[in-house]
Amino acid sequence: MPTTTTAPASQLTLPAYYWRLTSAADASGKSIPALQTGIEHQLRLTFSKDALNIRGGCNAQFGGYSFKNGVLHVENLASTMKACDQSLMQLDAEIGQRLKGDLRATLSGDTAEPGLELIAKDGSVLKFVGEPTPETLYGSTGEIMFLEVAAKKAECSHPMIPNYQCLMVRERRYNEAGIQQPTQDKWHPLYQSIEGFEHKDGVRTVLRVKRYDWKNPPADAPSKVYVLDMVVEQDAGRK
Q1: What's the pLDDT tens digit per position in 148-174?
Q2: Predicted model pTM
Q3: Distance of alpha carbon 52 from alpha carbon 62, whole angstroms
Q4: Engineering a disulfide at 165: which of 11, 58, 77, 153 sits with its beta carbon 3.0 to 4.6 angstroms away?
Q5: Which CATH number applies to 9-132: 3.40.50.1010, 2.40.128.270, 3.40.50.300, 3.40.1280.10?
Q6: How remote is the C-alpha of 233 from its chain's centroid?
Q7: Sign of torsion, CA 41 45 48 51?
């Protein structure tokens, strides 16, 4: 993993991290039962330049936000509409009820272990821990690409691991209408893993990944990193 440098809380930014819920208490300091499910399911907030996303409950919730002078202002949240276990749907309702309007926000810690505390209008206190996004970790903006992963791994020459089995991949391309184009790339070994992807023997997949240039990798690490974004296709019995 890349090293991180210590910086004051004033230099922390919301979009640089995924913010995972670690505690939720009401105005009297008592734990909020419905939000304990969010801690167990690792509910997290993700901030882009001007949009907030909440994941970890039943449905994804999203909306606009602004952050200025210690106040996080959250616009009305929209949501996907699937049905789930009652506890997850209650979690959605509880977190959506508190993350709206103006919240007092405090960033603390440093770039290695940042914290975010939000105090809602009803006095409830939500605490989060920051986990660096890939953009923060690798120091670059990810490039979206599609990789087809063969159903079988193949033995490949790895300088540090004897009899290493590599994923066999080839790049896939789609036109503007989302129609897959004829494959031009040849199968080749990928001498590293794809973060977030677990290969199953006998299952062919097409993945949407983000490829990052690792600005300052350790001596034994690759200069590019692949992070799973979405599984596009998956089927068994094909090579």
Answers
A1: 999 999 998 766 777 889 999 999 998
A2: 0.78
A3: 5
A4: 153
A5: 2.40.128.270
A6: 20
A7: positive
